[in-house]
Amino acid sequence: MAGLVEKLIEDAKGCPKRVALPECEADNTLLAARQVLDDGIGTPVLVSPRRVIEETAERAGVSLEGMEIVDSADDAAADVLAERYMSAGTMRLISAKGARRKIKNPMYYAMMMEELGDVDCTFCGHTNTTGDVLMAAQTIIGLQEGVEVPSILALVDTPGFEGPEGSVIAFTDCGLNPEPTAPELASIAIAAADGVRALMGWEPRVGFLSFSTTGSGAGESVDKVNQAIELVRERRADIKVDGEFQLDAAIDPKVAAKKVKRESDVAGKANVLVFPDLNAANIAVKLIQRFAGGAAYGHNLSGFKCPVADSSRGATVQEIVGDIAMLVLSAR
User: Helices H, strands E: what count in the chain?
Assistant: First the structure.
């Protein structure tokens, strides 16, 4: 997996972005920010009370030189930000008073900056829960057109696997939606297609997975998958999408030739796999990790209008740097 992370970091150096980091009470946030700046991945924009930033930097032994500091405790600056946000000409989910109240929380402050274009992406989740991150992103940024729910896209690297993109393939949704409806599943697929195009530069070929291949089985879950496929085609005719496929028919050209008796741009060469529910996705990831020595990487929240990362609260500095590299790539 280190090879994939190194590739993402190298790619991110070619398109550095302004990265808002609101969780500056954590030593690892500033340690990672220092590495992100020194490696040329992006420009850290530290969003927290200046006192907190300086105390953390001193405790962690981190130089703040070259980083931007946004003092979220500066009332005058916060007033200006909230006013800009409310007058930007877009319908807001909160009132003017609500906006001013919300940005007392640095995470909301950072996302408001991002929505206004002051930064390119927001990295958080290292100290905030997933629920907190989702609430902030849905309230301040909102979902992209054609997307109904946020989701998590994982890049899965499996030793010995030779797929259309080598050993790496994308899985979705790997963390948020237990039993998505057909419209939700369609939006998950759309967000994943856009995500792999930005992250990896791939032309997405999206395969919807099932226990059935093109009608070999029947059931409500099969019907849901096929409804989702049609919705993707209606919403985004530019995305190559097909199914329903069993896993082997989605990724193995020889199996696809036997099982899929029609022309398909996806069968046997899918690089994005859409799972019918979170049970299947979670089990698949764990099987690859435990039995094949593979790894899954990615904490980006797919589907929002602007890039947001929900990091693991147990993430190491190196993991945070890798997450930020993915976030930077998704912002290009």
Answer: 13, 13
pTM of the entire structure? Answer: 0.90
Over 70: is that where the pLDDT of 265 sits?
yes
Is residue 221's pLDDT more than 70?
Answer: yes
Residues 6+ apart with CB under 8 A from 144: 191, 194, 303, 304, 305
Return d(Cα 20, Cα 36) in angstroms, integer.
Answer: 12
| Amino acid letter, residue 72 | S
Spatial distance between the Cα atoms of 259 and 295, rounded to a whole number of angstroms: 29
Asked if residue 136 lies in contact with residue 267, where contact means CB atoms within 8 angstroms, the answer is: no
Q: Confidence band (pLDDT; 50, 70, 90) for 1?
A: very low
Per residue, the 3-state secondary structure of 77-129, as one string, reads: HHHHHHHHHHCCCCCCCCCHHHHHHHCCCHHHHHHHHHHCCCCCEEEECCCCC
C-beta separation of 249 from 256 below 8 A: yes
Using alpha carbons only, give the angle 319, 325, 327 rounded to the nearest 5 degrees.
Answer: 105
Environment class of 46 (CB within 10 Å of its CB; exposed 0-12, middle 13-18, buried 19+): buried
Distance between CA atoms of 50 and 34, rounded to whole angstroms?
17
Residue 154: pLDDT above 50? Answer: yes
SS3 247: helix
- Mean pLDDT for 282-301 is 90
pLDDT in tens, 319-331: 899 999 999 999 9
Measured CA to CA, the distance from residue 45 to residue 104 in angstroms comes to 17
| pLDDT (mean) for 94-98 | 93
Give one word for 214, left, alpha or beta, with left for phi > 0 and alpha for psi -120 to 50. Answer: left
Q: Which amino acid is at 159?
A: P
> Does 2 have pLDDT greater than 70?
no
Handedness of CA 148, 150, 155, 158 (dihedral sign): negative
Contact 5, 317 (CB under 8 A): no
Q: Across the chain, what does the average pLDDT equal? A: 94
User: What residues form DSSP beta bridges with 208?
Assistant: 274
